[in-house]
Amino acid sequence: MIFTFFISLIISASPIKILILHTNDIDNAFSPQKATWINPDFPPILGGEGSFKILLKKEREKARQDKAVFLLLNGGGMLGGNLLGQYTDFPGTREFMNSTHYDVTTLGLKDFLHGVDTLKTFLKTLNVPVVCANITYADDTLKVVDWVKPYIIIKKGGLKIGIFGLITEYMPIFAEKKDIKGLFFLREIPTAKRIVRELKSKHVDMIIALAHITYGHEKELLKEIPDIDLVIGGLDRGGTRYATEDKVNHNIDIRTHGRLSGVGIFEATFSKKYKTFLTYSWHEETLWAEKYPINLAK
To answer: Which fold has domain 2-296?
Structure first.
């Protein structure tokens, strides 16, 4: 009886619909590309930016009709990766991020390929909030750099959503010293715990981590910090076939394959009263040009 009563309380808590589209490790890959790993002789075509915009328009309209809270998020890795990434003003990336109206992004390893100064100049051209909580100054490791925010609070559909970013703590190993000169990268878990405490003190309803820290470390976030509701990951580029849910805390990790080959679609209902997901589904939608014809993109 007690269990049935508890369930009835949750169901009656006026759930809020959520629709989140997410990417990671875009790496300047906006052009159509051949999926040679599917069929090397007759590879199907991935539509890149054009197919992405068609899908985005469709999902935004779906959220509007369903009266769902809609978010477009990136789990890090905008720059680098191909010849387009060698232009230090990054026109393609700037146009893509601004025209698609991402709500938030974090930074990734390849965003530092041209050094800190180039990255800072690029970020000034973005109309997208950039969050990363564990980048500090080498001569003042208690101070987060002033060219990104540690987190942002978004108010949509009656919800206060706290979103913070993390980049891998192993940047000094992965990146060249000249590209991260003057920076210090804090440990991921202690930083996340501190940020989550701060967000909780601001009475947010939901906490999302954009974590460019590898799949293994994303699972550690789920395990160590139960108050994180959702982790959107990146760095090692591999997507997952299913969402990863921690068996104890029941928080969730999702990630897609890189280079704009697919988009993650997370649909859920959320209880503001109990601050938890009641239901959710997730899948990665591959951006096949046949399904999302590039010539229809505007």
So the answer is: Purple Acid Phosphatase; chain A, domain 2 (3.60.21)
